[in-house]
Amino acid sequence: MQNLFSDLKEKTHNKHVELEHSAPFALFHNMMGNSASETQHEHRENYHNVLCVMREFHQHCMWVINDAVKKYPALVPLSQQFEAQAVLIALDNDLTVLNSNSAKCITELQNVDVPSFETALSATISAMYVWLGSSMGANIISRRLSKTDYGFPTHYYQSMAIQSKAWPEFKQEVARLLPIMIEASKAETHIGETLSDAIINDANLWFEHLILLGKSTSLPPQTLS
Q1: 120-133 and 167-189 helices cross at what angle (nearest 10)?
Q2: Stated pTM of the model
Q3: 199 near 126, Cβ under 8 Å?
Q4: What is 2-67 written as a DSSP string?
Q5: Residues 107-138 pLDDT 10s
Q6: DSSP-assigned letter for residue 80
Q7: In the chain, N or C: fewer CB atoms in 10 Å?
């Protein structure tokens, strides 16, 4: 099982780096570094876009996870590790505080289809992996934001910082369930022996999905220079 998570980290690295250097995330990290090249208004719009992207991502993850749980009840313990509703509420709270036109942004993002994943199981495990992976730096981001002069709300990142504590239990539960999931995928798709590969492929699809969501925000492309 350790090999699965090692392989996930190694074989999704390029997409992870691409995501970090794409809009709106690259500019978000510039803001965190107190870059003076953008105005506070631009930082505010960029932060709004990040939150909109993450809200749509988490919503899409929940659709995939909920559908898989109905099909595979053995996934229930895994799904219970995700405080999905709390995360969505935190995002909505932040967007409300920003007084952002989130409805327009969400409408734009709804034009981005959920990827065609290899299997329901691989889509679900990879969604959980990317979800929890995105929580790893949440505590640091929350602290850095609180030290800026922008006064931006951080309910979402505080919520994700709490979520990150589920990482060790998540890996243990995946290890326990993997043999069961392999058998289930063999029965349905005849690719059980390559379930790990499917999880890795679908994790890359989730990263690509985040990149496409980011490109669909209304952030002016010229600010990337």
Answers
A1: 160
A2: 0.87
A3: yes
A4: HHHHHHHHHHTHHHHHHHHTSTTHHHHHHHHTT-SSS-HHHHHHHHHHHHHHHHHHHHHHHHHHHH
A5: 667 678 899 999 999 999 999 999 999 999 89
A6: T
A7: C
